[in-house]
Amino acid sequence: MAAIGRVRVCGVFLVLALAVIAVLAPVAARAQNLIRDAEIEYALRQLTRPLAAEAGISASAIRVMVIDDNTMNAFVLDGQTVMIHSGLLLRLDNAQQAQAVIAHELAHIANGHITRRLANLRGANSAAAMGLLMSMAVAASGNAEAGVGLAMGTSSSAQRLFFAHTRAEESSADQAGARYMARAGVDPQAMVDVLDLFRGQEALSVTRQDPYVRTHPLTADRLRAAKGFAAAYGGKAAMDTAAEYWFARAKGKLGAFLQSPRYTLRKAARDGSDVGVMRRAIAHHRTPSTEKALAEMARLEAQRPNDAFVQELKGQILLESRRFGPAVNAYARAVALAPNEPLILAGHGRALLALDTANGNRQALAALEKARARDPFDPRMLRDLSVAYARAGNNGMASLATAERYAIGGRMDTAAVHARRAAGLLPRGAPGWLRAQDVLAAAENAGRRKK
């Protein structure tokens, strides 16, 4: 996937320190994928905004991101990041159910449950710190093989420390989340509907449970209380057609990329909506059948002529079909329509790099630098930025971008190699040199902890 970018999360380290990042021994047996897609993340922001306002949290400070995992789970990664498994998102039926999940997790943030638990962790202000958070996401998956253990305990103790909530916290988050929903005009009954998805799982063996049940204790009392909250707060909500539309786009695009193309084509065969056309275009692209995909994209453009995400998807299909010039044009149109979307800027830079011309390389570097300024935690963008710097003859910054890319993935030893190279090539005290020092400090603490 490209527009839906699968960012590999190595899950090799956990960081535990007061003012520095100390990375523990690598024990993860498998990796996870973090899905990055401008359209999906925009849609989730639309669902989150009214809930965040009612929770007293700045909507611009909240990220809702998707992990490529077919189990059902959602959790708070830090004080500003909510993670949702793709398996849960694809199982939900409507926007209100998605908002119920988000409202519950926002309540954990607003009530201070995560702040207390992560009080001794450095915030995600650097690539190395983001590597910490992504490693923690693997531990939160609930899969023992993917868990990352603390030095003083097991992977299950790491989960309990960082992600698992007490029954009191769950009850508190349910009540607060239902209140946010009601105030935002979202029916709290959707929270009951979501909990019903997990009913009976606590009676299953641990290996058969979805991780949500282990990180969010689900009991009959909790479900009964949620029904009471719905009765107390509900009854005044009306369907938000805009929210339902963006949920349909997010779920439709996610499913088209993750599910079988044959399944998607069968389900969307008679769907004339823009979401249905988009799903068919993606399915044909994955088959691959470029001409059929582009024919569907032409229909989609006619329906949504000024939609930046439509142009981005068109750019992706053209780029992955090696039609570089038209891809650049599509991405340029997307940037003109949404100039502040970092993932769209990154896609434009990637297409310009594919031209491999002097002018294209210069424009690519400018686009990728803008993308990094808005979202420094996209490893695919950092990979492309490294190439752009190298083509411009700036080997120091190329090494720095590579160092940060490895740091985000938790590969601190490799990150340190590139950070030392960057520090040796960049002017001492310059912003790039300081970023290299940040990666080196994290790597040094990792090595010290392993000893």
Automatic annotation (TrEMBL):
The TPR repeat ranges on this chain: 308-341
Signal peptide: none
Keyword Metal-binding in record: yes
Highest taxon of source: Bacteria
Names of the cofactor(s): Zn(2+)
Residues annotated as domain Peptidase M48: 44-228
GO CC term, one of those recorded: membrane
UniProt record, GO biological process: proteolysis involved in protein catabolic process
MF term (GO), any: metalloendopeptidase activity
Family annotation (InterPro entries): Mito/Outer_Membr_Metalloprot (IPR051156), Peptidase_M48 (IPR001915), TPR-like_helical_dom_sf (IPR011990), TPR_rpt (IPR019734)
Alphabetical keyword list: Hydrolase, Metal-binding, Metalloprotease, Protease, TPR repeat, Zinc
Pfam families: Peptidase_M48
Cross-referenced PANTHER family: METALLOENDOPEPTIDASE OMA1, METALLOENDOPEPTIDASE OMA1, MITOCHONDRIAL
Protein name from the UniProt record: Putative Zn-dependent protease
Taxonomic source organism: Rhodovulum euryhalinum
